[in-house]
Each structure stands twice: as C-alpha cells, then as structure tokens.
Amino acid sequence: MSDRADEHSAAAGRAAPVDPAARSGPGAADAPGPAGGLDPVDGPVSGAVADSASGAAADPGPRPAGDSVSGGVADSASGAADPGSRPAADPGSGPAGDFGPGPAGLVRFPLRAPANPVSRKAVALWLLHGLSWSVFVVVGSFFLARWAEDDRWSWLPDWVLGNIWWVPALTALLLLPAAIVEPFWRYAVHRWELSEDVVYTRSGWVSREWAFVPVSRIQTVDKAQGWTERALGLATVEIRTASHAGSSRIKGLDYEVAAGLAASLAHRAEQLRDDAT
Description:
Layout: H1 2-15, H2 20-23, E1 38-39, E2 43-44, H3 47-53, H4 71-77, E3 100-101, E4 107-108, E5 116-117, H5 121-151, H6 158-162, H7 166-189, E6 191-194, E7 198-204, E8 208-214, E9 218-224, H8 227-232, E10 234-241, E11 248-254, H9 255-276
C-alpha cells in the first residue's frame, strides 16, 4: 500500500501546474531553463510564435547577410516601403532637354541653318515686288477715299467721312516700311544646301519653313525665270517629288548657280536610282 501511495504522490507531483509567480520570483532570471529552450509544459515553442499567440509584436531580429527575403518585400508586407530597395532611376529615360539623349535612345541636336545664302540680287527682286504691291494698294485706297468723299456714302458715319483721307495715309504708313524691310529680312532667312543625299532649304520671313528633300526621291528638277528675274540674272530651282508635300523651291539664285544645281541634282538622283536597282 505504501508503494502505491508513493507512486500516486509522484505522479501528482509531475502533473502539478507550475506557478507563474514562482518563475518571476527572486532568482528566477538566474535559474537556467531546460536544455534546448524546452518549455516544461508546452514543449519547444519559438519566441516569435509565443509572442504572436499572446498578441505582442514579433521581433524578427537582425537579418543575416544574403537573406533570401529582400527588405523591400518584407517591408511591403507590413505596409512600409523600403526606399533603399527601389531601383535607381535611369537619367536617360526622362524628357530630353535641348541636347543629350531623347526618347528611345535618340540624340537631339540643334537644327543649324543651311550653308549657302541666296544671291544678293534677290534683295532687289523682293524689294521690287514689295514696292509694286504696296504702291498698288496705296493708290487703290486713294481712289476709294476720293470716291467715298464725292458720293457722300450715306451709310458711313459722319466722323468717318470727315476723316476719310486718313485711309490712304495709314495704308502708306504701314505698307511702305514693311515693303522696304521685308527683302533684307528674307535675304537673311533664305538659305540652301546640297549634301550627299539630301537637299536642305530654309525660306520665309515672319513665318519660316525648313525642307529636307531626299535626292533619291527627286523625279524632276526645273529652273524657272520670271521677267524680273531675267532682268536681274536670277532663277528659281523647282524640285519635284512624287508627293507634293515633299517638293521644294529655291528662289533668288544666280542663273549660273541655279543651272549648276539643277544639273547636279539630276545627275545625283540618277546615280542613286541606278545604285538602288
């Protein structure tokens, strides 16, 4: 009987719950736990799982080098992005400035002016045309003002009829200076250049136009002269392609220059067509 009582008391001692206060008492921190970190009741439980079960935030601890989980992925799971894990921006992928790499790896360069100016005699040609047109408009406004004053147009206000002669005066004041300035402005803008396979031109004055005509697409090259151009020894080279938008004209060239350019373009276009076949 005594042996059975001892066995029952030993079993009761092994099954008795551990008092938490006994662990937290004096000297509990110095008492070594079971080997391998085994809890005497629940067995081997990691600190992170035990803390998460109790509602406390888990401490992941320092990550070793070469961890298979990157900081950005781990941080994104918790809602915070790691700025150090983002790839560096490619400076060439942004909008290009005046120079440097552009979209799709293209390099942008400033558009230079064509190399060759037109003839200086083109200033006289444009001056003659501008003055002729301006004089025609001024004379027309003079006759219009005289007609309005003589017939006394009733539908015009009295203050307009009383100042009708301001119309030709203002017309002359606006048109004649413009007719004098325009030829010099045009001469500064109009330029042309023939390269190995492209004709490059610039024309206009207030508004400007740049044209690039591939020599391989040229179908006909003509030179033309009006009566004023013939009087000044000038000519216009007309370059025509299959598309009207791709055609171009170079005005204000000396006749010899225009003839030589037309011959060179025709010969070069024929060579390129032969090479293509």
